[in-house]
Predict the 3D structure of the following.
Amino acid sequence: MNFAFTDERRLFAESVRRFALDRLEKDALARAHDPRFPFAVATLMSQQGLLGITLPEADGGQGGSLIDAVIAIEQVASVCPRSADVVQSGSFGAVRTFAEYATREQKARWLPDLLAGRTVMSLAMTEPDAGSAATELKTAARPDGSHYIINGTKVFATFSSDAAIFLVYVRFGPGVSGIGSVLVERDTPGFTIGAPSSFMSGEEWCELHFDNCRIPAANVLLGPGGFKKQMAGFNVERIGNSARALALGRYAFDKARDYALTREQFGRPICEFQGLQWKFADMAIKLESAQLLLYRAASNADRGLPSAYEAALAKAACNQAGFEAAHEAVQAMGALGYSRETLVEYCMRRCRGWMIAGGSLEILKNRIAEHIFDRRFDQRKPHADAAE
Ligand SMILES: Cc1cc2nc3c(=O)[nH]c(=O)nc-3n(C[C@H](O)[C@H](O)[C@H](O)COP(=O)(O)OP(=O)(O)OC[C@H]3O[C@@H](n4cnc5c(N)ncnc54)[C@H](O)[C@@H]3O)c2cc1C
């Protein structure tokens, strides 16, 4: 086992950091408080080869590994936390699932703009009555000749204010085996995007309404039976989510450490108080151990798709470590940490959301328990007749 980066990876990390310092540092604070997707950053990242890191070169990607993309998130976030979302959207999120399963025609149609940073894709899975119980989704796709008619409502989709294309989980028929996904363009008749609402992080989401929205059959990404494949793609999203949580926790930790070294109270730097030293030691233990789980899940990923168990362990550990580190960093910096003059409070708010998004901590722990006991624990209420 080797915990050191290869020379190639070290050079890659250094080049991403230099890029971030040159191009992203200046507006990092303003960017974090802008709810809109930073398309200008996406364009710069495309030119730098930081979009499509995990996508094959044949598809216009960089042909890199999941670990490379994790390194890119870490380096970008250490300078501009908000810009890490662009790495996520270009290498981990809906675009990664799309690239895994799309037809050649679908890729030719949508990938060039996505990988140039001109457009962004949003993943629409959650519904008003289907959150953690994602397989209870009701949004229906009904065949109509060479088209499908989509009806239903989606909520909480990240980038929904700005996305040009939506990867929408739909139901072609009953049960889990009836679930698949379709691609819906923003201006499709029958597709309405509601007014933006805000998360605690400041990010926006819009209600998405499909009202007899007619899409060509060529826009089906995965037909009935596609749910398992979608979740395999979604485990990549979970790695990106873990990497951002950890990176933002570390960003806050670093700022608080610098503050503790220089801020003086009672005539001495506050890092000399044991009450603070132990806080920092606890933060370091959590961040470093979560990082090992993250790297293991990313480097064990088979053809770039991590195992559900390792992704769940990594996400649960990184979400908790990131939030706890950012939360303690706010405390260690006093009123300055709580103020919008620094990005420490932003990191705390963002990390809080990842404990809910993309599989809440509780749902991840359910998944981990299934691995431990090698049994599936159905969360659904037993039917009355089955209980008798
Ligand atoms: C920042 C952010 C970004 C998001 N981005 C997207 C996106 O891009 N696309 C998208 O489709 N959705 C997105 N979501 C929605 C997200 O996927 C859901 O919030 C998540 O699946 C939880 O669903 P819910 O909010 O309806 O909570 P609920 O499912 O109502 O759960 C409420 C609470 O009950 C717990 N709970 C539920 N079931 C169980 C169980 N069986 N065992 C133990 N505890 C349980 C949950 O963990 C949670 O604490 C985002 C959410 C956030 C916060």
Q: What stands out?
A: Residues 227-262 form the longest helix (36 residues).
